[in-house]
């Protein structure tokens, strides 16, 4: 009897010990997790973040004060030309506005320069050069090609003889008969300036045909006009046009097919809706969709077939 009582007593003690150990493990696990989260929050400021303010178009000294109130720092990583604006303005930021970051985080800024950005242009870069070469040179220098004016004469077609900025002569071809010498010093031109060019038509130059622009988007029409050695004239709009590049040409003057001298202007009329009477281009066929039934496919002679 005493042995039986001792057995059940030991069994009860064993169950109590196991239960106590399980509870202890569970409690220890929760305590460890809590301590780990507390340690992480201590070192990484977990759960504590600030919102990045919008700094674009703000002066640098103003942005510095605003960032200091949120315990944020900044680094100027790049500068761009100020254009028509003023220097020291923030134009780009990273992280973006409203993004949440930890305190002491650095905000990377791009600001405008205080001095103008200029390009050095030389006489030999433009005068006497073909149009394609000059256009590439100007675009690489962040300059824009403006109006193209053609004059009769010259041996080579599309040769540059004059260049203007805002109507002011930049370079004019020197006349050796008048003892004129080409200038050697560079002219400083602000970036994004528009350069108007005067070109020669060439001895054998013929009148060009006006291209058909109707049913094209404005972007395509502008590319076609310049590629055909004409100038874009007046742009008219019908109704509300929110996206000019995607607007459709429904009228042009002069009309397509007429002869005109190179450099002539072409006026266009735009509308947002696809013009009535225009035909949308069919999508390109997908391989395998053209000859599903095999009726129109030409038979290939056996001797011309290539084994895979």
From TrEMBL:
Recorded GO MF terms: protein serine/threonine kinase activity
Residues annotated as transmembrane: 21-43
Protein species of origin: uncultured Aureispira sp
Top-rank taxon, per record: Bacteria
Signal sequence bounds: none
Alphabetical UniProt keywords: Kinase, Membrane, Serine/threonine-protein kinase, Transferase, Transmembrane, Transmembrane helix
Protein name in the entry: Serine/threonine protein kinase
Pfam families listed in its UniProt record: PASTA
Entry annotated with the keyword Transport: no
Start and end residues of each PASTA domain: 47-113
Region of interest (Disordered), ranges: 277-308
Biased amino acid composition, Acidic residues: 283-308
């Amino acid at each position: 009897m005493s042995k039986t009582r001792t057995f059940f007593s030991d069994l009860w003690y064993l169950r109590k010990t196991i239960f106590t150990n399980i509870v202890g493990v569970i409690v220890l696990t929760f305590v460890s997790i809590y301590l780990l989260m507390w340690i992480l929050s201590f070192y990484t400021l977990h759960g504590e973040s600030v919102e990045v303010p919008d700094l674009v178009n703000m002066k640098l000294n103003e942005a510095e004060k605003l960032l200091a109130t949120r315990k944020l720092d900044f680094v100027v990583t790049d500068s761009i030309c100020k254009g028509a604006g003023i220097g020291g303005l923030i134009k780009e930021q990273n992280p973006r506005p409203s993004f949440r970051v930890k305190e002491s985080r650095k905000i990377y800024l791009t600001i405008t320069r205080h001095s103008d950005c200029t390009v050095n242009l030389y006489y030999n870069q433009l005068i006497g050069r073909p149009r394609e070469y000059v256009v590439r040179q100007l675009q690489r220098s962040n300059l824009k090609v403006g109006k193209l004016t053609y004059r009769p004469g010259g041996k080579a077609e599309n040769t540059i003889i004059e260049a203007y900025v805002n109507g002011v002569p930049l370079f004019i071809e020197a006349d050796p008969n008048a003892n004129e010498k080409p200038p050697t010093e560079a002219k400083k031109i602000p970036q994004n300036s528009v350069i108007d060019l005067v070109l020669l038509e060439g001895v054998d130059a013929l009148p060009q045909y006006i291209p058909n622009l109707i049913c094209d988007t404005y972007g395509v029409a502008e590319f076609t006009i310049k590629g055909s050695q004409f100038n874009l004239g007046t742009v008219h709009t019908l109704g509300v046009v929110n996206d000019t590049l995607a607007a459709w040409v429904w009228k042009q003057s002069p009309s397509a097919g007429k002869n005109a001298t190179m450099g002539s202007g072409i006026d266009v009329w735009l509308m947002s809706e696809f013009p009535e009477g225009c035909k949308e281009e069919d999508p390109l066929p997908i391989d395998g969709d053209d000859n599903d039934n095999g009726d129109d496919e030409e038979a290939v002679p056996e001797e011309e077939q290539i084994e895979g």
